[in-house]
Records
---
Amino acid sequence: MDLREELPSDRQAVRDVHLRAFGDHGLVVADLVDTLRDTVAPEGGLSLVAEHDRQVVGHVMFTRSLLDAPRRLVEVQVLSPLAVMPEFHRRGIGSALVRHGLGVLAERAVPLVFLEGDPGYYSRFGFAPGGGLGFRKPSLRIPDGAFQAVRLPGYEPWMTGTLVYAEPFWRHDAVGLRDSHA
């Protein structure tokens, strides 16, 4: 398996990974990725793919958001989404993508990475519930346990406050959980 930055020629393959990995929610996620991709500038985010036999089988995206800290706004990254083709689950592909991405971001002096996800999965990478680390979630629809953060070497103790998601997450209604009965 090879990990590398996403290329323009990977666009459809990445879209297919999300459509397959997220099932009924796949279209929303794939559209979100297409929109977020336009915000990933050099040093401003990261989009990685995993290849197996020259086929894209996994993808992770880290995009710029802000932490509204008392001292000043802090540029942070949000890990979202992470997807692996269903037939390639449980082979360490998602873990490799996350670890590689966090390593690149640490080298870029990014102080914090946030996500919404399963604590049982993401705790292996150092993520912990954001509320316990002094952070406030950007929406009440995010379950407390799912709102997670990891501090990277660029973090400083004064960096606390509220995560402010980038606009595409709101536009695609990809923040927190919606009541399916509404």
---
Amino acid sequence: MTAARITPSAPLGLRERKKLKTRIAIREATYRLIEEQGYDATTVEQIAEAAEVSASTVFRYFPSKEDILLTDEYDPLLEEELRARPAGEPIVESLRHVLRHAVGLGFRESPEEVRLRTRLMVEVPAVRSRMLESMSVTGRMLCRVIADRAGRDPGDLEVRVFAMGLIGALTETMAYWAEQGHEDDLGELVNRTMDTLATGFGTGVSGA
């Protein structure tokens, strides 16, 4: 997922804190440079200089420039929160609650980063392609959680279809939001997305 940075639930050791600080510095430098001069004009060497690290350090933390934009530590928090929801709650409602919380957290922490990331997803094919790969990892995590909730195998067709369908729906929600100039409330768009997954396209729409 790409909505927010994770805030670790357990205290980190000194080594882990240093790693996290470096990752954040690289990320913030990347967003700042892209905002100033554009995606294509921003090089890894420039990012390294702005973050006060070497280019090799950047690549040690992030395999590519796209990964700097898209890699976060959110999936473990998403899984933790989903597993903490009431066992009898419909999975769509559990997901709605967790995703709305993620969107709110992302906007409180870094609204401009969220907007830039989704705009680049629409405008830069390499970013969109890498985002789809990244989201597939989230989809596999969702398969595990959904399967555990339903007493199914994560590899079951229905589990995979639902989880990956959700991933596709969220990707299109982000793209729609960016294409509309970020004017809509993203939380409400996520809510509409979950409604569509829960009830289908609906008979009230012309041509449905």
